[in-house]
Amino acid sequence: MSEIYEQQLNAAKKKIEETKVATQNSRQNLLEQIKKLSNYTTTYEDSWEGDWAENPFTYAKNFKPSSGGWMTIDLQFIKRDISKHTEINIDELRKEIPKISKQFFELREFLITELSFIRDTDTFSNEIELLKQIEDFKWGMMPGDYVRSRRPRYAFVYDPSILIMEFLRRLTLNWEMK
Known about the structure:
single chain; 178 residues; mainly alpha; two-stranded antiparallel sheet
């Protein structure tokens, strides 16, 4: 291996180690917060009695068993409730994640740039594939994708005519386009 290749590989190794050390505390803290949130949000999943197709708010079994019945919850209620029970401020967490992620985006760009020389060498076929996967990797998840991953497989609604109206609306749009 030429000396230039070795220098580039050592620079990449050093950058990986620096990123690992620089983000260790923030990654550990983030992991703990995610675990707390995941554990607590099951409360909402277990209590949810909403309707995926109809309402902009959620119906839930009342979280205060002594009062019983149903309650309507919105985003602000959920944020306050999570903060109260987990001591995690969702808005602060949302601001912190891009700061942590930035270092990994920088590492990704560094690796793609600094290791691009391997594409010209046939002996690095496995490494070329790995570098391609690093380039193509989609970071994060859109909120809507997360919600879709957690929703029930079968949509239940209080008023089935809403589903029919949506079908008819789409049918009308398709017909008008022709």
